[in-house]
């Protein structure tokens, strides 16, 4: 059973581990200590929203959104900056559930839209985004109007 919920400071250990794996995926050196410090600061300063996915009490994925604003609409928007699902949980719908949770979060916070950036060659992620209703804006960016 998949459980999706907002992460809290009590989830710092498991989110930091997932965040470290995410960074490794993007060719960064592992550093769980710095990952924990970075995420702790985001959570304590309320600078991001982190949503975490569990399968049978095991943390298997997360997404992190940063607030931005639309001057024209005078409303908040969100940058979905990070999305990661452990390899063992891929192709199980966890990524879709995290994307849906991000959309729900955006709607709950009266956001105008969500935006994300991905690698031009990350075709697997692009197919997940497009299958989830995101619109391609350029080679790298996708948006979802709320």
UniProtKB/TrEMBL annotation:
UniProt xrefs under Gene3D superfamilies:
3.40.630.30
Q: Which Pfam families does this entry report, sorted A to Z? A: Acetyltransf_1
Q: Does the keyword Ribosomal protein apply?
A: no
Give the superkingdom in one word. Bacteria
Lineage, highest ranks first: Bacteria, Pseudomonadati, Bacteroidota, Chitinophagia, Chitinophagales
Question: What does the UniProt keyword field contain?
Answer: Acyltransferase, Transferase
Tell me which residues make up the N-acetyltransferase domain. 2-146
**InterPro entries (alphabetical):** Acyl_CoA_acyltransferase, Bact_Acetyltransf, GNAT_dom
Q: Give the originating organism.
A: Pinibacter soli
Keyword tRNA processing, does the record have it?
A: no
Q: What is this protein called?
A: GNAT family N-acetyltransferase
Q: Give the PANTHER family listed for this entry.
A: AMINOALKYLPHOSPHONATE N-ACETYLTRANSFERASE-RELATED, AMINOALKYLPHOSPHONATE N-ACETYLTRANSFERASE-RELATED-RELATED
């Amino acid at each position: 059973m998949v459980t999706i919920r907002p992460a809290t400071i009590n989830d710092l250990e498991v989110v930091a581990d997932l965040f470290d794996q995410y960074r490794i995926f993007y060719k960064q050196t592992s550093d769980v200590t710095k990952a924990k410090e970075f995420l702790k600061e985001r959570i304590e300063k309320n600078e991001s929203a982190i949503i975490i996915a569990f399968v049978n009490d095991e943390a298997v994925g997360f997404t992190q959104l940063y607030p931005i604003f639309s001057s024209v609409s005078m409303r908040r928007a969100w940058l979905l900056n990070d999305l990661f699902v452990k390899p063992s949980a891929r192709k199980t719908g966890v990524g879709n559930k995290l994307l849906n949770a991000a959309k729900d979060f955006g709607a709950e916070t009266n956001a105008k839209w969500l935006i994300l950036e991905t690698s031009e060659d990350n075709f697997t992620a692009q197919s997940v985004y497009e299958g989830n209703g995101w619109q391609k804006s350029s080679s790298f960016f996708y948006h979802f109007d709320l």
